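Kindly review this record before class:
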Amino acid sequence: MHTVQGERGLKPWVFVVLSVVMGGCSTRDIDSDADGGVNVVVDAGTDGGLDAGTDGGLDAGADAGTCTQDADCDLEQRCEPATGACVPRTLRCTTSADCLASEICHPTAEVCVRTCMTGADCPDSAKTCDVLSPTDSQRVCKCSTDALCNEGRSTFDRVCSTQDAVCTPKCAADEACAEGLRCDTSTGQCKVRGDSGAPCTGAGQSNCDYGTHFCSSNVCTALWGPTCLNYENFPNKDRLGTTGPILYDARRVSVSPDPALCGSATPKRVDVALSAYSSRPFPTLKANLSGFFRVMVDGSTRDGQSLLFPGNSYAVSGENRERAEFVVSLCVESTSTTLSGGFYFTDGNFLCFQANY
């Protein structure tokens, strides 16, 4: 009986001990979760999540392109106030309100250009600080080459305007150019109109289309199309073009006997003054004039140097020696009263000249 009772007496004690032990384990789990869980989740979440989010997100966002003014952005960007973001911009403008605070809208090129006091105020693409125009003393940054206008860009889509010396986007059609200008699609430049009827000044090419027009009485005029027999019988028309020196005028100067220079078979001398313009400088001496030819009525060719008799005038003019006027001497029979002559420069136009005397 005692043994049984003793065994029965032990069982409640064991249960109590086990309960205490198990209760202690449970208490340690709760403490561990409370201390380790809260500390790890909350602290780590704050440091690793919110802090990292602030440092990695907000700060990084500000560094990558948020702005409050245009000066915060790159040269190719402007600040968009509504979003506070730096966004790409174009050079084209209609008023200075379209440009940055340090720029104005160029009145003829219709692009934004930076104002300046000295060249140090200008970007590498346009380092010359100069007056806007002869009638406007405001100083702006001007360019010198197409290459500099495209410096640092992935595409070569800008040109240094020949009209205004400022960087402009290449044009692809006349609509991209200001009033009075038209697009030269071969270069992307907007140029002063040079077709028939366009205003011009001076002589020669002026601002008229090269190879097809010349300036006459302040109006661009189409060159005369050749219709003489000299041209019709000329077999080497592939030697002509619109890129070489261009003959745009011819006039008779004098008719006189000159058997000493012309010979007894063709003793009559007819002097004709020819006018030409060129994209390359003419030589200062007539002896160096090359690529010039006379075409006879039968289509045969004579070297033009043989027509430049001693004493014949030869004058070169223009800032780049782009114009020349020279006299050629043609020898004809003593009974001749009419003349049909053809002249050309290599890769230039064909000029017919006919005269009665």
